[in-house]
């Protein structure tokens, strides 16, 4: 069984898409292992997106992710990382396949509604960063 960190970003929360996004993962058959509604500190944002430091979009990305509350979750399934990445769709909404979350609901690359861990290594790092062990069921 594999675990992944999924986060509905501030644009997804503001647009009222938390329930819709959770519903897609539930209906697919993944198991929810943890969830919380929270504001992202500057420190958490910078640690989470450390790999993008120095890129042209980095500063805006940090401002965006700390601008409003997010809904962070841990989901569990065989191949949870690949499954949820496929359901989320490509970063650029234009390239995201029809039926994916980003294709169905997002217009912009920088307002792309949802984050999902992209590797087993990052999933482990991100889950430990966002959740205390006792918050995970
Ligand atoms: P995420 O990590 O949020 O799940 P992702 O894995 O699809 O998204 P990454 O390449 O890891 O994409 O980029 C992280 C985030 O940085 C993107 O989700 C997007 O919000 C922002 N981003 C990436 N590339 C660009 C870009 N060219 N212009 C603006 N924002 C970008």
UniProtKB/TrEMBL annotation:
One of its GO terms (biological process) is CTP biosynthetic process. The keyword Chaperone does not apply. One of its GO terms (molecular function) is metal ion binding. Its main location: cytoplasm. It catalyses: dZDP + ATP = dZTP + ADP; a ribonucleoside 5'-diphosphate + ATP = a ribonucleoside 5'-triphosphate + ADP; a 2'-deoxyribonucleoside 5'-diphosphate + ATP = a 2'-deoxyribonucleoside 5'-triphosphate + ADP. Its EC number is 2.7.4.6. Homotetramer. This is Nucleoside diphosphate kinase.
